[in-house]
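Quick one, tokens below. Sequence please?
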């Protein structure tokens, strides 16, 4: 089934959990979604369709390959390049290896190890970054737009608390009502204390 593409960087910046055989439908959906977007996409990770599992699919010549729980175990020839992403707008700089060796499970969950180079290696690295919650970046650091959005979200919550306090300060009527309530409470407590005293106390 073709699934919609997730474009929320806060969701995409969360690490994916290991996949297991219960995720076969996700593999099928991910392949279907990649094939529906081949005119503008050469690889996808499961979180791009809303599933935080370590599954990637990518083009390798005329074929679409599946890797489950992929892990790069070797890389050589580091270089700087630019990449785009179906989940993000624009092109950004990043660093990749020219040649990598990857350990993974295939779509039938059989273990495998393969060496890849050039553009195919670049695609695999991009999609594994997705699994690790890393968007297009430089030097392995999380995309700065995610940090900015997180700061804005936290600032919004803090501002809301400060605004509530400011409204109280700006409304003296609230302070008056609070003072009157406190005085009534004190008087009621005093009356209760007097009623409870015995004649000998007086």
């Amino acid at each position: 089934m073709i699934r919609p593409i997730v474009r929320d960087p806060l969701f995409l910046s969360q690490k994916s959990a290991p996949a297991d055989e219960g995720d076969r439908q996700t593999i099928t959906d991910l392949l279907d979604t990649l094939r529906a977007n081949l005119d503008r996409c050469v690889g996808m990770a499961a979180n791009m369709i809303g599933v935080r599992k370590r599954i990637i699919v990518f083009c390798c010549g005329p074929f679409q390959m599946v890797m489950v729980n992929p892990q790069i175990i070797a890389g050589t020839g580091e270089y700087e390049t630019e990449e785009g992403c179906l989940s993000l707008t624009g092109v950004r700089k990043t660093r990749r290896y020219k040649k990598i060796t990857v350990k993974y499970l295939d779509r039938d969950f059989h273990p495998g190890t393969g060496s890849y180079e050039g553009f195919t290696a670049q695609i695999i690295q991009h999609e594994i970054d997705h699994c690790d919650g890393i968007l297009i970046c430089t030097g392995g650091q999380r995309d700065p737009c995610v940090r900015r959005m997180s700061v804005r979200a936290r600032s919004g919550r803090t501002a809301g608390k400060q605004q509530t306090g400011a409204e109280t300060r700006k409304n003296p009527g609230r302070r008056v009502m609070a003072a009157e309530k406190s005085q009534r409470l004190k008087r009621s407590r005093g009356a209760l204390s007097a009623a409870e005293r015995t004649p000998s106390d007086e």
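Confidence is low (pLDDT under 50) at residues 138-155, 158-170, 191-202. The first helix runs from residue 9 to 12.
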